[in-house]
Amino acid sequence: MAPADQPSTRLRFKEKLLLGKSLSTDNLLKKLKTLHAELAELDQETVDTSSLDAVRKELINSSILLHRDRGVKAYAACCLADVLRCYAPDAPFTQAQLRDMFDFFFRQLSTNLKGPDAPYYNQYFHLLECLATVKSVVLVCDLPNADELMGVIFRNFFALVRRDFTKKVELFMGDILIAIIDECNSLPADVLEILMAQFMDENARPGQPAYSLAVRVCNETADKLQRHVSSYFTDIIVANSQEEEFDQIRTAHDLIKRLHASCPGLLLNVIPQLEEELHAESITLRSIATQTLGEMFSEKGGSELVKNFPSTWNHWLARKNDRASAIRLKFVESSKGLYSSLPELKDVVEETYRTKMLDPDEKVRAAVCKVYAQLDYETVVHHVSEKQIREVAGRLADKKHIVRLEAAISLARLFSLAYPEIDNNDTQAVEKFSWIVNDLISTLGTIPSARAEIEQVLAEYILPLPAAPAASNSKTIEVDEVAWTDKLLNTMRYLDEQALKPLLILTNLKTARPYEVYVDACIQNNGGVIDENEDVVKKRLNSMIHHLATTFPEPVKAAEDLQAFADQNEGRLYKLLKTCMDVDTDLKGLVKATNEFTRRMEQSYSSTMTIFLRRASLRIVNKSSIPTLLKRLHRTHGTSFNKTNLAGNHAELLLTYISKHCPAMYKSHTQELYIALDDEKSDRLVAVGLQALAGLVKYDKSYALGDGDLLDRVRERALGSHPRHAKFAARILAFAENGDNQCADAVETISDSLSSVPSDQLVAHIAALVQFTKFAIDAFEQKSDVITSFLLKKLLMVSSLAPEDQDEDEDEWIPDDELSDNARAKVLALKVLRHRSLAHSKSEKPLEIATPVLKMLSAMLDNGGSLSSGVEEDKQVLSRMRLQASISLLHLSTVEVYANALVPRFLRLALSVQDTCFQVRHIFATKLVALLQQRKLPTRFNVVPFLTVHDPEQDVKQLATSYVYTSMNRMPSEHRLQAIEYNFIRLLHILAHHPDFELTQDELTDMAKYVLFYLDLVLKSDNLALLYHLAAKGKTVRDSESQTYSENLYVMCELAQELIRNRAQQHSWNIQSFPGKLKLPGDILKPHPNADVANKILKQTYLPAEAASWLEPLLNPVKEKKERKVTTKRKAATVNTNGYAKRPRKKKRQSGNIDDEDSGQETSDVDMTEANPHTSSAGEEDDPPGGKNRARNQAQARAKRHEARAKRAETPASSDA
Question: At what angle do helices 283-297 and 310-317 cross, to 10 degrees?
């Protein structure tokens, strides 16, 4: 309406719109167009509204509003909208007319507003624009039944906006809805429902028109909607919580999360409600609230939420300690986005996760570990501390499989994400992530039960097979063998020695044989249809299933799956497995076979057979790796620790391991090996080539060298000055086509020059002689007198005097490359004598040759590594000589006649596992366990692992524990009975002879710890009666040496009975009488002279009366709240012949090039099997390596032993005392 002081504009249109039936539709439409054009031009500020009265009354007539022609209604709607615009803010209509008008408007829009190409689109667009810009639509709020009409408008618009409109149309719709909400006195429930429904739509997402419209409307009317939204959620929760209908409540909380993501302003009054729910009695409601808030804090706007609602944040954080584990689990699961949403609170987040890694519930611990597998690389780099990642690595030691698995997956995935940056030597990536792979693989050495998890993540994340195309035709599969091999070498850059050993075992180069036997047994079983030898075939299959199943995480399930796989009897699967296990399969063939096998096994027992496939196939190193490995070794120059040299070092390690355990892999690479022999720049490459050829010709004699230039070059190497070249070249000569003559000539040449060659040449010559004694003994014997005389008189019997500047506290062990030529020659000389004795073990009179060697080796152990007494020798040489003497005696004990001759020296040999030098103890224990696993040693050697209980280093004790635990679980029952259980009496006997045995409190307590160590690993309800009976039977015999040791034995027997009774009481076991008859070992025990003596001994008590009180702290230790650190002692080490006690050692890198067959450099298979999951209850907790108490404890133990031996020296003792 025009103001009074402005000239007005009047409507010029004077025609009648309503002339009855005489007016045609076309004429009416023409008039409406004219009217619309004029009305659209009128200015609201200058129009004389009285000039509109006539058309206003006609336009609202039902004959126009209900006209059948769409065009008429479209133009009429535009005209009415313009009339409302001109009259604004007044409305020249009754409420009934307005109701009809707005019904007409929105019916037209919902029915006819479509795309720009639709009829009358411009008119509907004009109508929408008028309603949006003039805001005349707010008149709806004052009409009767306004709630109903508003509901219709909102419903129609949200249905209408889903059509493909321009952004301007959506804006107009939003303006209309916003205007209605702003103007209405109270928001109809129906309108709020419609708005909320847009957020719950399954297609709701940013960019989706209805969702975008709802977000805009809610954000621009947040102040008006807050109260209504709060009431909306309150009503839902109150209505459903009373009936415990939590589905509706969950849906409501999902809506809250969506609103927070797009319209956080609506939730001002809702967040406090969620805070209250955190304290609800209902666990379900508390869980829903915890999850909802956690996910909201983890979203992009989480930082603002924490700032605006600090109380809610603190109350939510407190749910980490909720009494219900389900709440704690939801707390962790919902918080995975906190690192990226709340970077300023990362310290709080990390501390929270750190405490939850120690949660009593394994599901919570696993969930925390899983969080780190869900983070992207940038988040971890910038917001997660290295300390926190190491906390995750600590969960690899968790007792629960699920926790270990999630921790391993998280770590492996982080390493995989960081690998490209690590490979590019990015400093931050290397420092933060490179250690992960080392920690993962090292876990196998300390927690063998984690093997399945480590294997899985290695295969999936760290060292996966190359991805192959979907096509199954091998001709279409292209894999980058060089890149695959280089990734292994690059990964190995970050492994220390303790991780490299398990990695080598995981290559399956050494352990594939049992899996091949199983597949062959399945083929012979033929699904149960067996033509001949049915019992033998089934027994073999069952035996292999039992043997393999014990190495799986779930042995019972694994056994069932392996049996089911055999029953399935699918030849194609057998063929695929054999392809994966075949050393002649290249990388391309392995990828194809693995993919097909995995695809076929997806539907049945896939988890077991996936583990089987990983352990049976050569998926880390195979024949395709060898060319790249040789090239990387060839590129090595100098000794600097650059990337190229490290790759060469690890290539050398892998090639050496292949040569030892899988030389057949070289069959298709002989030409590369021949070329390597001529490399004048790299002695290491030549050594690797010689070792590979030596392994190959030994494995397959068809590859033996004939006369020619190549053999001449090998002979030249055998007589050269490089020890490793000479060693492997000599072995090649032994297997050459004319090997006897070649070896004889070489031996003669060496024997003639032993006295005159330089020291380095002497080492090489003796290294070659070792091989001739092993593989060409007849050639060696032609000059054996000359050689052995030289080795004894000119080498072994010549003292290695200690350097004048050698400090008393200097280490007993030094690396191989620092060892003198003289020491290296002495060690090799012992090997020559050992192998010569072994070579003659099957002769008519083997002891004629071996007896002097056995005596010499025993004397060397008695004298601390020396053959001379009273001379202070170089302790670093003596440790090597003690080690080689003990290992040589172990190998000689694999021959029955030699083992029998060594029975009197058994105790001294066993005490090598308690040597003062760690390397001697560890290498000896490793070699011992390897021979015990192969059942090459007499069963009495199974007592030696139990002598490690006092070892101050975890490595030795862990090795022994793993072996015993594995034997108890995997050995056939008959062999276990003989090897472990019957040997209990031998353990008591050896403890009775132990140099530390005394009837004092400290020493007797130490003796008890040996027995408890045995009982912890061996005692079960089914062998309780046997072990108790053995302990009792000990008093029915006497020691074969002296009465003193007999009395010691009786003390140990009574002590063992007391300890067994205590264990039985703890487990509520009844000790039954043993029903069978046992024959005690006659080599160490003999009967009493008469019955009177026997009865007297049985009635007499030898254990001191005070023993019960002495043992009380051991048997019933006081439980402390704090972690208790118990000091440790290492027992029974020798004293140097010069009277000096040996010092504690510093743990150094072990190396074994001079003794690479026997040094224990290879990890025993026991390292990869299940270890005893609990700590010995003997009360010992080893100090960690480098612990401050170790040196003090060792010094105290040595002083005590020295004093005890001095006392015993005053009385006569047998030669084996």
Answer: 120
Tell me which amino acid residue 550 is.
Answer: T
Contact 996, 1201 (CB under 8 A): yes
Per-10-residue mean pLDDT of the chain, 1217 residues long, equals 61 76 77 86 81 84 85 89 86 88 88 83 89 87 89 90 84 92 90 92 84 93 93 87 79 93 93 94 93 94 93 96 95 93 93 95 96 95 95 92 94 96 93 94 82 91 80 62 95 91 90 87 90 89 90 90 92 94 93 91 81 92 94 86 89 95 93 89 92 93 86 93 95 91 94 92 96 94 94 90 72 89 95 96 91 94 86 88 96 95 94 95 96 94 96 90 88 89 95 93 93 94 93 92 90 94 92 88 91 90 90 74 37 35 40 47 39 35 36 43 43 31
Nearest to 36 by CA among 153, 109, 138, 120: 120
Q: Which amino acid, one-letter code, is at 682?
A: S
Q: Which of 320, 304, 575, 588 has its CA nearest to residue 468?
A: 588
**570 SS3 class:** coil
Closest CA relative to residue 555, chosen from 970, 965, 964, 967? 970
Concatenating the DSSP letter of every residue in 1162-1178 gives: SPPGGGGSPPPSS--TT
- Residue in this structure with the two tokens 């994340």, named with its chain if needed: 461
Please list the alpha-helical segments (H only) found in 145-268. 146-160, 167-183, 189-200, 209-220, 222-241, 246-262
1049, 989 contact by CB (below 8 A): yes
H/E element holding 388? helix 386-394
| Number of other residues whose CB lies within 10 A of the CB of residue 1032 | 16
Distance CA(945)–CA(951), nearest Å, equals 11
HSE, side-chain direction, 13 A CA sphere, residue 164: 4
Query: Which distant-in-sequence residues (6+ apart) come within 8 Å of 35 by Cβ?
Result: 13, 17, 55, 75, 79
DSSP assignment of 422-458, as one string?
Answer: HHTT-HHHHHHHTHHHHHHHHHHHH-GGGHHHHHHHI
The gap between the terminal CA atoms of the chain, to the nearest Å, is: 126
Radius of gyration of the chain (CA): 44
Q: Report whether 414 contacts 372 (CB < 8 A).
A: yes
pTM of the model: 0.80
